[in-house]
Structures are given as structure tokens and as C-alpha cells.
Design brief:
Layout: E1 2-6, H1 10-22, E2 27-31, E3 43-47, H2 48-57, H3 59-67, E4 70-72, E5 75-79, E6 82-86, E7 91-95, H4 96-110, E8 113-115, E9 131-134, H5 141-145, H6 147-150, E10 152-166, E11 173-180, E12 183-191, E13 197-203, H7 205-211, H8 218-228, H9 230-233, E14 246-253, E15 257-258, E16 261-263, H10 278-296, H11 299-329, H12 339-347, H13 355-361, H14 363-371
Parallel strand pairs: 1-2, 1-9, 2-8, 5-11, 9-16
Antiparallel strand pairs: 3-7, 4-7, 5-6, 10-13, 10-14, 11-12, 12-13, 15-16
Helix pairs in contact: 1-4, 1-10, 2-3, 2-10, 3-4, 10-11, 13-14
The protein binds flavin-adenine dinucleotide.
Length: 373
């Protein structure tokens, strides 16, 4: 059996290595348009639960990823200049490029044919493969070339965000809210190495226009945002890595496969970055597709089994992520709240945490919330 994978992000690489580990005789070709050291963005976060899945599938990559983790159990909310800490939320951060390097090395070791600087613009030559995997990210060309087969539903959301790094170390998932004459800004930040944090800034389109970002270059944009978050960055710089303002695209597909082509990761389904689950979804999709292939052996049966098993889980997570996205799109409506009720609203926004869970995670915070009622 020959398998072609378009895209060398977490989804494509992890699927490739799982297949090759289980079936060393299968030919697996992975095509990535960028080089092995190119990446966008900075660090990503994982919840603890993801990790046990990874250990079962491939202990070697799991152990290497975990060794590089920065861990924390607190969410920090900064609102009206006050810091509210909520404990009991276990997360880990790691640089995206580190995950890619770990997965690339494992793919090489197992004999996956990694083709870098290999953009796939025409899928026709790849149709001779037994299975063609579109792991080519949110703007997937595999998906768009077979639009009639997949019937994608793409929703470009109104908020804008930009993904920076900073040497300022944010210990814990830190959500910071600041207002100025242009409007309201939210920063999602966390430490992902010994000396760097991710710092994502999000704002609504009115704020974005009033601030004048349309006419600002990279330096001016960073200078503006360093001023907005001056108090939080304590004068540290924001670092750009080809950072640009973008709108989040919510991706869903009516059909997950078409003939012998299947989508994986962001090309298949996205979850708003505020719940930090995009990489988790991508890796778990890969595991589910690999399991389906292992259990059903015939590609058509495996693709049906993959969708049947995985769709309910992905849709549940997307529903939770959607509630979170809506919270950030309507942030202005909550800015009047005092810090503790605001932090409560934030923690419970996606419907995954209720009063009972909150009480278990952080009884002291729960008591502060209940005292305000
Ligand atoms: C601002 C921001 C913050 C995020 N924060 C987090 C977080 O904290 N935690 C988390 O888990 N996730 C986070 N994510 C999401 C995460 O980055 C993605 O969900 C994840 O990378 C999806 O993996 P993927 O392999 O499906 O796609 P990608 O990582 O996008 O990889 C797709 C690959 O396909 C390649 N490609 C595309 N087209 C072609 C082509 N035609 N030919 C060859 N190659 C091609 C691309 O170069 C890319 O390498 C964030 C995303 C953003 C934008």
C-alpha cells in the first residue's frame, strides 16, 4: 500500500510515523512546501489528557515532547488591573518548532519519505496512491480542489489576532484584558520554554480599525501593542516571526473523505485557539485514522470507520470552542464586570467547567465567586 500525505504539520507527521511504525513495508511519502526549520508562530499549549494518548501510540515521541514541556496548573486573569489566579488547570507549553523537529526525526528514523520544499499544487500525480491524506492546514488546497466531494463549511470570524513571542515569562495561561481609546484588547500568553512566551493579541474589527493597524508596518504594530500591554510586559519586547493580523477561520466539512482522499487536522476541523486544542485535535485525528486503517485494512472501510468514531468527539470540542470564540467576539459586553465575576465568566465560557468542577479545581477561587452572588 502506498500513502501520500500533503502537509508536514503535526497531523501529517504524526500520521506518517504511526503508519510506518506499524507497517514498515508500506511506502509513505509526505510532501511539505516549507523547509524542516520553517514554522509560523511560537509555542502551543496542551492539556494533560492529550499526553496519555501519545504515550500509548509512540512512547519515544511522547517522552521527547514531555521532556521539553513547561508546565503549570494556573490560569491568570488580568482585568481592571487586578490579577485573579485560578488553580487546578493543568497545561503544558512547548515551541511548535520543537514538536515538528521531534516528529520529523522520528519519521526519518522509521523510513517515511519526507519531501521538503515540495508544494503540491496539482493532486493529479498523487491520485495513483492508495490513500491520499490532506493534512495541509486551515487553507487546505486538497480540500478546495475537491470541494464538491468534501462540501466544506468555512466561516471567517470577525475578530483579528496576531501571534507574537516575547522574552517576558508568563507563568501560567495568562489572559490579559486592556482598554484604550481604540477599544478592547485581549492577550493570550504562556511560557513555552525557559526564556520565551507566546503572546497572542486579539481584538474586534472596530478596535482594529480605530487603532489604525491597516496602515502600520510590523515595527509600528509591535510598538503600539507593547504600549497597550506595557504594564504586563513590564517593558519587554514583542517578537515577530512573520507575524500578521489574521481572522480565525472555523472549518467544518460535511464529508470527511472523498474517494480515497481524507482530510486531517486543521484542514478537516478547527477549534478556536482560546481553548488551546488545535494541535491536540490534529494529533488525535491522526491516531483515529491510523486506528481505523489498522482495524479495517481496506481504505474505503477505514475512512468510514474513521469518520464514525471521530466526528462526535471533534464536533463536541468544536461546540465548546465556538462558545469560547463567541465570548471573545463579544468581549465588550463583559468588560464592565468586576475581576472575580469576570474571571468566573471566562472560566465557564465554553460550558466545559461548571460550579462543581470549579470547586474541585480551586475551592478558594470558587468561594470568592460564590461570595459575590
Ligand atoms: C494564533 C494561533 C495560536 C494557536 N495556539 C495553539 C495552542 O496553543 N495549542 C494548540 O494545540 N494549537 C494552537 N494553534 C493551532 C495549531 O497551530 C493548529 O491547529 C495545528 O498546527 C494543526 O496542525 P495541522 O498539521 O493540521 O496543520 P498545520 O500545522 O497548519 O500544518 C499544515 C502544513 O501543511 C503545509 N502545506 C500547506 N499547503 C501545502 C501544499 N499545497 N503543499 C505542501 N505542503 C502544504 C504547511 O506548510 C504546513 O506545514 C494555534 C493556531 C494559531 C493560528
Amino acid at each position: 500500500m502506498k500513502i501520500a500525505i500533503v502537509g508536514g504539520g503535526p497531523a501529517g507527521l504524526y500520521f506518517a510515523l504511526l503508519v510506518k511504525k506499524w507497517w514498515p513495508e508500506k511506502e509513505v511519502d509526505l510532501f511539505e512546501r516549507n523547509g524542516p526549520d520553517d514554522t509560523f508562530g511560537w509555542g502551543v499549549v496542551f492539556s494533560d489528557k492529550t499526553l496519555s494518548y501519545l504515550k500509548v501510540e509512540d512512547a519515544q515521541t511522547h517522552d521527547e515532547i514531555v521532556r521539553r514541556f513547561e508546565r503549570w496548573d494556573n490560569v491568570n486573569v488580568v482585568h481592571h488591573d487586578e490579577l485573579v489566579t485560578i488553580r487546578g488547570n493543568k497545561f503544558s507549553g512547548i515551541a511548535r518548532i520543537e514538536i515538528l523537529h521531534i516528529l520529523q526525526a522520528r519519521c526519518k528514523e522509521l523510513g517515511v519519505n519526507l519531501h521538503f520544499h515540495a508544494p503540491v499544487n496539482d493532486l493529479a500525480p498523487l491520485r495513483t496512491y492508495d490513500l491520499l491524506v490532506g493534512a495541509d492546514g486551515v487553507m487546505s488546497s486538497v480540500r478546495s480542489q475537491f470541494e464538491d466531494g468534501f462540501k466544506p463549511d468555512l466561516s471567517t470570524r470577525p475578530n483579528r489576532y496576531i501571534w507574537y513571542g516575547t522574552p517576558h515569562l508568563f507563568h501560567g495561561l495568562t489572559l490579559t484584558f486592556r482598554e484604550n481609546e481604540a477599544g478592547v484588547f485581549a492577550a493570550h500568553s504562556y511560557k513555552f520554554s525557559k526564556n520565551l512566551s507566546t503572546f497572542i493579541v486579539e481584538c474586534d474589527k472596530e478596535t482594529w480599525s480605530s487603532a489604525g493597524f491597516r496602515d502600520m508596518d510590523d515595527d509600528a504594530t509591535r510598538a503600539y501593542l507593547e504600549e497597550v500591554f506595557h504594564h504586563d510586559l513590564t517593558g519587554d519586547k514583542l517578537l515577530s516571526n512573520n507575524s500578521k493580523w489574521i481572522n480565525f477561520t472555523l472549518v467544518r466539512n460535511r464529508h470527511w473523505s472523498y474517494e480515497n482522499i481524507v482530510l486531517l487536522g486543521d484542514s478537516l476541523a478547527t477549534a478556536h485557539f482560546s481553548i488551546g486544542s488545535g494541535t491536540k485535535l490534529a494529533l488525535e485525528d491522526s491516531i483515529a485514522l491510523f486506528h481505523a486503517l489498522r482495524d479495517y485494512n481496506r481504505v474505503p472501510d477505514a475512512l468510514i470507520a474513521f469518520e464514525a468514531a471521530r466526528r462526535p468527539i471533534v464536533e463536541e470540542l468544536q461546540d465548546a470552542a465556538y462558545e469560547s470564540l463567541i465570548f471573545f467576539e463579544n468581549l465588550k459586553d463583559y468588560m464592565h464586570l468586576d475581576p472575580v465575576p469576570f474571571a468566573y465568566k471566562l472560566m465557564t465560557r465554553s460550558g466545559r467547567i461548571d460550579d462543581d468542577k470549579l470547586r474541585k479545581r480551586d475551592p478558594a477561587f470558587a468561594e470568592r465567586v460564590f461570595a459575590t452572588r
